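Note to self: user wants both folds in one dump. Writing first protein now.
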Amino acid sequence: MSILDDARAGMDPAIRPQDDLFGHLNGHWLATEDIPSDRSSWGPFVTLSDQAEEHVREIIEELAATAPEPGTENGKIAALYASFMDEDAVEALGIAPVKPLLDAVAGVRDVRDLAALLGELERVGGAGLFGSYVDSDSRDSDRYLFHITQGGLGLPDESYYRDEKFAEIREKYVAYLATMLSLAEQADPQGAAERIMAIDTKIAAGHWERAETRDVQKTYNLLTSNELQDLAPAFDWAAYVRNLGGAPGAIDEVIVRQPSYLSHLSTVLTDTPIEQWREWLTSRVLRSVAPYLPKAFAETNFDFYGRTLSGTPEMRARWKRGVSLVEGALGEAVGKEYVARHFPPVAKALMDELVDNLLRAYRSSIEKLDWMTDETKQKAYEKLDTFRPKIGYPETFRDYSALEVTADNLVANVQAAAAFETDRQLGKLGGPVDRDEWFMLPQTVNAYYNPGTNEICFPAGILQKPFFAADAHAAENYGGIGAVIGHEIGHGFDDQGAQYDGLGNLNDWWTAEDKAAFEVKSKALIAQYDAFSPRNLPGEHVNGSLTVGENIGDLGGLTIGHTAYAISRGGTVTKEESQTLFSNWAYVWRTKRRIEQERQYLTIDPHSPPEFRANIVRNLDEFHEAFETQPGDGLWLDPAERVRIW
């Protein structure tokens, strides 16, 4: 049916595209492909990530071979990588590098000390009772504010502490904690592990359900420092922020995403004996550094978080983990060289053209909408006109001069890198918003939309086949990166992003009539996805409310990708070209996951499983026309049931 039928290995011609486009493009591959033993999933996304990882390794090892001067960016890259690769030094140091933090935990006398210790732990990369970060103010996008979000769990989600289907994982989590505490020679490791689990369970009882945390209105709660203290009186916020490294006034105003969680946490703090909190803190310290401690710690940590939760049989090779560490600490320094080697100027020029066509396609689509009034359309055009595309790499790369690393103490380097990043983030407070900052590295295989700056970002790492290639058929590029671009632009108009204006502020620019019409379409998409059950998890279902934002992004992205391709072709698209475009869309979602990861992602991931991302084509008239679907086909939807938003 498709002009790609003879060009794609792994297709299953026995599955008709009209019944299951994802299965048609990927069925044989799914049935025969083995996931590498150090991976929890496999497919084009992961393949490209592996390719980028190899390229970064080449850069790092070539830099190290030149013996760069210590203290320079290249010297820091070489030293950090060397400190990770020196296994003998790591084994010889044992847990000595983390002893100061463990001693500090042992000295915690009361809840005030606990708050101070958490600031110290989070400063060097640990995770505490909640998440904190600096971001722009959603109602005043020209300033930064300190943000607080629920946290404190060792398992992926609050549902893991209450749902019967996760009972076995809960047992293995306790066993993991006991082993980790035993390795660190802590008293009563089994009893302590059970008490830690009990604290985790109490904390989880205050968490908001994951779909609810998507609501940008409910999660915008601007508080003064006094109001924050009143919300959680048991927690010493001043001590926490001081040890985190924040300047006076850092939390004069703060955004709290889930206020009721902090109130709940305050009660848990006062109701739990301090000796049990010391056990809980010890486990958090150990977990934060386990990948950088001797092999027994790293293996124990991987056994639970890799094998048990994600089903991955084998820990990744040490060089791969070393590359990840360098990217996390000095990623843009490596990225400069990556871009020079792997992102030619012609690719950027072609991407500029693609993005321009996608924005034109959105404008054309909005003009034709029959459910939106002219008043709201004008506001939508204004937002489109202020979209800022970022392609390939940042205009200015990050300055790492304040980061100090050595080649002989891995944990100290990890903590120094975390402290450097903490200071960089806290240093934003009180200053102008840097709209040139990138939130992904150039070598990352991904993309994003940031509503606070109304920007779409496409790193060089994803601008490769099958998403994009200068020598590919244009229809393939529009079904790959074109639809991804459309998806990211679409986040500016999804159920949450549509509440932000072109300046990045929460600002209701919709008429009541248009908002109601939009909600009807969103609810129809939620209902459609609620009914989907993954082929490998029969009886379980997609959470349509959790995934609706990404589903709207996929639906709009693919629709607009097709429209943009038509614009690039002067308005005329043949059936074969449409088939090529839709086929590449289904191919880029070629993904095979271990069952443990599938189950975890179905619970926590705001993206739908790949098969449903591919088969969202059922909502597009253009798909039904290209493949001549008929009632009774697997992907047939009656025209009245097709959801089309943009």
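First done. Writing the second protein, which came from a different request thread.
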Amino acid sequence: MQEKGSISIHTENIFPIIKKFLYSDHEIFLRELVSNAVDATQKLKRLSSLGEFAGEVGDTKIKVSVNEADKTITISDRGIGMTGEEIKKYINQIAFSGATEFVEKYKDKGDDKQIIGHFGLGFYSAFMVSSMVEIKTLSYKEGSEAALWECDGSTEFEIRPTEKTERGSDVILHIADDSTEFLEKARIKGILSKYCKFLPVEIEFDGEVINNTTPLWTKSPNELKDEDYIKFYQDLYPFSEEPLFWIHLNVDYPFNLTGILYFPKLKNDFEFQRNKIQLYSRQVFITDEVKDVVPEFLMLLNGIIDSPDIPLNVSRSFLQADANVKKIDSYITKKVADKLAELHKQDEEGFAKKWNDIGLFVKYGMISNDKFYEKAKDFCLYKNTDGQYFTLDKYKEHIQVNQQDKSENLVALYATDVRQQDTYIQSAKRKGYDVLEFSHPIDSHFIQMLESKVEKFTLKRVDADTADKLIDKDTKTESLLSAEKEKEVQEIFESAINNKDRKVTLEPMSPEELPVNITQPEFMRRMKDMQAMGGGGGMSFMGNMPEMLSVAVNSNHPLIQKILNAPDETVKKDLAKQAYDLALLSQGMLTGADLTNFIQRSVNLSVK
């Protein structure tokens, strides 16, 4: 047949729209054309399996070639090919998808999931980089004649007979002057590696097969070993450490989803490793921006998700809001939680050893996702300053006897910097209290979340008050000083410190405690911790507020009596300032000239 005509579209401007707006990334053309070739090949295999094609399937390798001299790229397949009439139907009527019709026709005759094509516009992405496109094709149907279709990017086309002896299609792109970068072999190889490295039909470029047709996620977990998963991970992320463990996803109802998610060793700087999960649709790479499919906290994972049911726009470049996306989101969250629960149940000791690597992930998930919280609350671990790990229920049992306040609330104490807060930790331990370690910036948010969800349970930083007041048990220690002497000591310390933002109080404590304790209210500490993490809404003003430290003088410490008995006011003030600076030093708050002066004053006092 020979014919000339106009492509059936609703606007003369379809090609500029395709070129400038529909496909924002021009390299997509190769993904679309190779995917179409895979489609044609899969259809032929399907027809052969159904007995509707009696010929030899033979070599079905798809070949991509670049001819720099002719300025052409050719994509050749040995699929079902097309007749002249089918060209008119599938190519000239834009947005009519041959794959859709094929699936509909054969949907009751077995598996139709191998057909990739969804988008009738995919072929026209070729005009993003081409001044002319040719299709030379021969249908698998007996007695068919080869046909050549030509179009120069306008709405005009020509179909005429041609010479072709092998079944299938050759799509020949005559590369435009503004797209000659695509004539570089390295550029084409890079695109094929990005989008086509796991396609289910062999793709050959420059004499080399560039894809793995049966990637790990397409196989049954029963036929795979740990070393298979680790090798695949190393292929995906060649410069990464071995993953901690992984989850093999495989579901076909109520949606189709396969894939493998890996738990990497997370860095404590809490940087999101975005673009580490790749999204595929029937083994075609779509995007590594998966925030609409995967909950944000799971963005800390690595791996691959493959689903034909994820709704994409016509260019496959962007996800679209859909009920299936929410179902997939929920399913993946559940699978991850179930895997962690299983690991904890099977080997609590081994799970605890991994906690430093996965604790950040679990806590972030509990903060940001209620469904994950409900499952994770049973395997989330809490580490104390002695290096012991507890679930929340076991920890509540652990502190039940000694850390209940007068209102019968359990009070869990915690440290954010074990070394810097050691003085306070030791004071708490002398009273028989246990202290948890919450040393990551996210912990300020985690603590807030925990208190909002767990009844009659509160957390208090170990240096938020003196040891006697951390847990209010309505008990009182008697002071060894009279009210008159207490007032005198308070005035000495206020004069020595000389800072209106430091509130001085006298408190009777054990003589074993420091003579001076410097504390900051729990509320103020939390606000500053959350502000440092970048949270807390409009709390940026906290960084400009004074420290608002409380100075608690231990009226029962022997040094206080020594101060009172000192020979003159200067020595009294020096001793008081020394005790105050010692308390600052224990918190790491004494630096620079203040530290130098403290050392000098210590020397002077020691020789008096």
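Dump finished. Worth passing along: Residues 95-100, 110-120, 535-543 have pLDDT under 50 and may be disordered.
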